[in-house]
Design a protein that fits this description.
Elements (H helix, E strand, L loop, with lengths): L1 H10 L2 H13 L2 H7 L4 H15 L4 E4 L2 E4 L1 H29 L4 E6 L4 H15 L4 E6 L2 H9 L5 E4 L10 E9 L1 E6 L19 E5 L4 H13 L8 E3 L2 H10 L3 E6 H9 L3 E4 L8 E8 L6 H19 L1
Helix pairs in contact: 2-3, 2-5, 3-4, 6-11
Length: 314
């Protein structure tokens, strides 16, 4: 192991790591070489040198192209992290030289936006008014992919959706509560309690199949003995959901409770008193194990943890 590390330390070139990433994306030596502005023979020689250093083949060659094997998947994942970390270092150095506050990129699930991320970012911006922020809202699984590639510094989501949750650090923050919602003028009775059977006459806005709330609605309807709606309107956008609910009194949907509360306060939505039987899913701070956070990203993590501690005391 030490011999391999010494060899890599002395001979590994960043161009070889970038070639690996290009091969993973194009699955063709010819196309990867073109993307790297290299000749095909030079790319082939560079790959052979890297495989020799690691004493293992990294790709399976076939008529369909080059596909990474188990060794290749491992090395490519770390290559992406190394290239991303180097890029982040260059950006941070440039920010320091320019006198700006640097940059933090955060991925977040929908339910963590209003009451968790927004207050934390407000506090961070007060401390660093020149800090550049990038915020991406998506499902945990998709955000973890961007975290792996180095596009995100941290994710507010769930690490257990990954096939390899052990490669992340995870700090729980809270539960993502979910509410059943309708438009503010919806004619649904203002009863103390309701169940899913009471909503049989209304049309559902559901979420696309890869989103956790699609599976949540499926479970709840199964518990209630109600069939999943065949004529549902499917979307991945909370904004589309809210806009349609507000305009059409015949629609009903699910939203994270924190998001729903924003629109209830604006008298755009109503939350129906429907009890969900499914256990609410916990979310938290997810970072790459072994990855180094910038000072600003570390401060954001500290703010998020402090917020969660105060909320637990209430």
């Amino acid at each position: 192991m030490k011999s391999t590390l010494d060899t890599l330390t002395g001979r590994l070139r960043m161009k070889q790591l970038q070639l690996l990433i290009a091969l993973d994306e194009h699955q063709s030596l010819h196309q990867a070489a073109a993307a790297m502005a290299m000749t095909q023979s030079a790319a082939s020689k560079s790959l052979q040198e890297l495989e020799g250093m690691l004493e293992a083949p990294l790709f399976e060659r076939s008529r369909r192209g080059m596909r990474p094997n188990a060794f290749g998947h491992c090395v490519i994942r770390h290559a992406r992290q190394l290239v991303a970390d180097l890029s982040a270092m260059c950006e941070e150095v440039a920010g320091i030289r320019a006198g700006s506050g640097g940059r933090v990129a955060v991925g977040v699930i929908m339910g963590a936006v209003p009451d968790v991320l927004v207050p934390a970012l407000e506090q961070l911006r007060q401390a660093h008014p020149d800090l550049a922020l990038e915020i991406i809202e998506d499902t945990s699984l998709r955000l973890l992919g961007q975290l792996d590639d180095g596009h995100l510094d941290l994710v507010l989501g769930r690490s257990l959706v990954s096939d390899e949750p052990g490669k992340y650090r995870y700090h729980p923050l809270g539960d993502e509560q979910v509410s059943v919602v309708v438009g503010h003028a919806h004619p649904a009775p203002r009863a103390r309690t309701m169940d899913f059977a009471d909503l049989a006459g209304y049309r559902w806005i559901t979420y696309t199949g890869h989103m956790p709330m699609h599976a949540l609605l499926q479970r709840e309807l199964d518990h209630a003995g109600v069939s999943f709606p065949a004529n549902a309107i499917s979307t991945s956008s909370a904004l589309i959901t809210v806009a349609m609910l507000q305009r059409d009194a015949g629609l009903v949907s699910l939203l994270p409770a924190s998001v729903a509360a924003l629109f209830v306060r604006q008298k755009m939505l109503r939350i129906l008193p429907v009890h969900l039987q499914s256990r609410q899913q916990t979310f938290g701070i997810v970072t790459r194990r072994g990855g180094a956070l910038s000072a600003s990203a570390r401060q954001l993590v500290a703010i998020l943890k402090a917020q969660a501690g105060k909320a637990a005391e209430v």
